[in-house]
Each structure stands twice: as structure tokens, then as C-alpha cells.
Amino acid sequence: MSTAEHDFDDSPYDLLAADTDEGHRWAFGTGFTDPLEGIDTSVPEGLDPGALVRYCLALGDDALIYSHRLQQWVAALPELEEETAVANIALDLLGQARLLLARAGGIVGQTEDQLAFFRSEHEFRNVRLAEHADRDFAELVVRLLLFSTWRLSLFSSLSSCADPVLAAIAAKGVNELAYHRDYAASWVVRLGDGTPLSHAKTQAALDALWPLAGELLRPDPDAPADVFDHSVFDHGAFDAVIDSVLATATLDRPTSAPLAPVAGKTGRDGVHTEAMGYILAELQSVARAHPDATW
Amino acid sequence: MTDQSWPLFEVFLRGKRGLNHVHVGSLHAADPEMALHHARDLYTRRNEGVSIWVVRASDITASSPDEKDPFFKPSGDKVYRHPTFYEIPDDVPHM
């Protein structure tokens, strides 16, 4: 963070000279872009469409369910500024969910809404971490740190993957996730290295959530090898980021084992925690009661 | 009881086509770093800015309304201070 302006690449004089007739006032922003503009949406030859669909559903469901959990915090946070921050993050994730579900739906002939609102619990492929209900603000930021650190690493690799649509979605998500991670990490450091009470609550949040993080690092059996080779996922980078944040926050890295699969199955296989049914009831009930409604 | 609320910060944004930072509002934050994050979350949601400054509101020294006349009146009749008697070259933008 600099205290003065050193933005030589982005000279306002050049911009003024280059482009003056868009008719927009500066305050309302310009330059909105479509992340998928000009991209061929057919499935590249040699890719297994079924596997690509299941993989997009996994990543899309993570974002959809996580976003829902964050939306539930809106109007319950202690400061207006944090509320906007969390709502922004929820919106970013909802945007990622829409693009990913639309990608999956485009291949199987369904809309993103059909996939979001008319699948049942065992068809959702999100990790169980996404459906966890944060019990306090410490859990909110610790969970977001784990999730966004993992997802940022993953999206960075996916931005050059074999499916051009998924690659574009991932490339768009990288900047969003980098900010989410920054937001979460700064709060984890602030609370962990804060008062004895905030430290204790943050350590408790970390201890409670750690078992759920293991599922993020499990290989997804449905990830198409040509799209994403799990063996190239950079576990080292994930660990390095988490360790560095925890060290700065004076928190101890838990040693607890990952939450065990149920009969060998985890969230990716459609086996969820009890919380999932309640989330879907809230998320889907209106769409199911009024299936043809538009908004 | 001590005041537990966060101090006030003033936010200045420079838009993509703006030449200078413009005051856009204020917010509460615990320190300047957090204020910068909050400013990003509150004031750049619609693509408004490419650069943010935040400054603690208490660090701003402002002119007082009581001094308005002695401060600003004296320049009111000095038309010769305006450079309106010169031709502006074509290649000088934004004058």
C-alpha cells in the first residue's frame, strides 16, 4: 500500500487523450467486461463432457453454498463496513457459481437456475466446509481464509486448463479470490494477534474448522485429468500461505485429522452434513413453490 | 464509559479518467490499512476508482466558516488573476 500516487502505467493524461467520447461520467464507472466474450463454448475434442460437467458442478456448488452462508451474515455483522465487505464477497462467489453452473448446464441442456434450485442434496458436490454455519466472526474469517487460499491456488492453475470456458472463469475469479484471501488474512491476523479474548476465539475457530479443511485437498475423483491434474495442485503454496498467516497471527496450526468420509464418501460424492438440508430448504423453497416465476 | 467506536476516515478516489483524487465520503475503521479495505468495499463497487487515499478525519485541518470573508473575499475583485488573456495551445488538454 503506497501513500502516494505512482501509477505511471495508467497516466490519466493518456487516458483523457485516448478516449473521451464514451459519454459516461467518471463516478459511474466504465469498462465493464464480459469474462466469456469471444470464447468458444463447445467442449474441446478429447475432453470427457460428463467429467467436465461434474467438475464444474463441484466448483460451482462450492461457490453457491458458500455464498449463501455469507449472505446469511448480512444484517448480522457488527459494523456496516464489514457487512458490505462480506456482501461483496458473497456476490463475487455467486457470480462464480452462476458462470460454473451455466457452463455445466450448457453441456447437459439445463439452465443455471434449474441446477441451483431443482437438484436434491445428494446431487450437490460442494465440500462440507462450504456448508458450515459460522458461529461467530472468528469462524467467518478463519473459514474464509482456508477456503479462499485453496480456491485461489486452484483457480490460478485452472486459468490455463484445457477447457477455455473454465479457464476464463478461473482467470476472472483469481482477482476476486485474491481479495477475499487478503480480507480474511488481515482479520485473522488482527484477531489472532489481538486481545487474549480475540486470540482465544480465533484459535477455537481454527481448531473447529481444521478437520473440514482436509476435504479441500483431497483429489476430486471426477476431475477430468486433462482439465485438472490434481498432482500438480500446489499443496506447498497452500501450506506456506496458511502457515505464514497463522505465524503472524500467533495462532497454532492444529494437528487434528480431517473429518472422516461417511462410508468412503464426502461432500464431493454428495454426502453432506446435517446443515445442508436447511440451506437447500431456504435456497430452493421459493423457486420450487413457484417453478415458472421470473424475476 | 470510553468511546469504543472506530475513528472516522475520509475517502478520496481517483477515477480512471479523473486527474485528481476527489472526496467521495467517509467511513469508520480501526486503522488506515482497514480504512483502505473498507473504502474499496464501500466506494469502488461500481468501477469508480483506480486509486484510493484515506486520511483520518481528525488529521484534516479545515478552514472555518467564521473566517470565510477574510479568507476568500479579497480575491473576488481581482479579475487580472485569471489567465483569460492568453491563447491556450491545442495540445494542452483539460484546461
Describe this structure as you would to a colleague.
The complex is a heterodimer of chains A (295) and B (95). With 295 residues, chain A is mostly helical. Chain A has 10 helices and no strands. Chain A starts with 11 loop residues before the first helix and ends in a 6-residue tail after the last helix. Chain B is α+β, with helices and mostly antiparallel strands. Chain B has one domain (8-81): Ubiquitin-like (UB roll) (Roll), CATH 3.10.20. Chain B has 2 helices and 3 strands, in the order E-E-H-E-H. Chain B has helices spanning 32-43, 68-72, and strands spanning 8-14, 22-28, 51-56. Chain B is flat and about 55 Å long. Chain A binds chain B through residues 1, 5, 7, 10, 12-13, 15-17, 19, 26-32, 79-81, 84-85, 88, 179, 182-183, 186, 190, and chain B through 6, 14-19, 21, 27-30, 33-34, 36-38, 40-42, 45-48, 50-51, 93-94.
Overview features:
heterodimer, A: 295 residues, mainly alpha, Ferritin, 10 helices, disordered N terminus, B: 95 residues, alpha+beta, Ubiquitin-like (UB roll), 3-stranded antiparallel sheet, 2 helices, 18% helix, 21% strand, flat
